[in-house]
Design a protein that fits this description.
This protein is of the alpha+beta class and about 150 residues long. The protein has two domains: about 70 residues; about 60 residues, no CATH class. Helix content is about 30%, strand content about 20%. The N and C termini lie far apart (about 40 Å). About 25% of the residues are buried. It holds the Pfam family DUF2007.
């Protein structure tokens, strides 16, 4: 059994800015926390899904209160012309939640799982470039959904 002062993983974020906003909200509420993988994801954003994104850690005794603060109000997402191109064509402007784990750390973009149909598979072979469908991807549990 772990002690209440042990550090636990709370949430992961695709973008360092969203992770810093969540960290700031927790610190403003008096909950000490820290981020890991922030520099790696800032320098190499394509490694975010591989490393599990920017990870937010808190003490075990503060975990429940921290989750209530974070899930009480969604962490704002970046918007505007400088946002990644995959998010610009998201079908729903409201940040969706993962149906499996309920996390709001979800992005819309090219699917990572095999989503080839007959025509997209044929086009991918002819173009020698994968033509994939787009889906929502949860960076907390890895679930993909439409």
């Amino acid at each position: 059994m772990s002690s209440p002062d042990s550090v636990v993983f709370l949430e992961s974020f695709y973008e360092p800015m969203a992770a810093n906003l969540a960290r700031t909200r927790l610190e403003a509420a008096g909950i000490p926390c820290f981020l890991s993988n922030e520099n790696l994801v800032s320098i190499m954003p394509l490694y975010s899904p591989i490393t599990g994104g920017v990870r937010l850690h808190v003490r075990q005794s503060d975990a429940e209160a921290a989750l209530e603060i974070l899930h009480d109000e969604a962490v704002p997402r970046a918007t505007g012309p400088d946002i990644a191109s995959f998010a610009a064509d998201a079908p729903d402007p409201v940040t969706p939640r993962c149906p499996r784990c309920g996390s709001s750390d979800v992005a819309y973009g090219p699917a990572t799982r095999n989503t080839y149909g007959f025509w997209s598979g044929l086009l991918s072979v002819l173009l020698r470039f994968p033509v994939r469908g787009k889906r929502f991807h949860c960076f907390h549990c890895g679930n993909e959904f439409k």
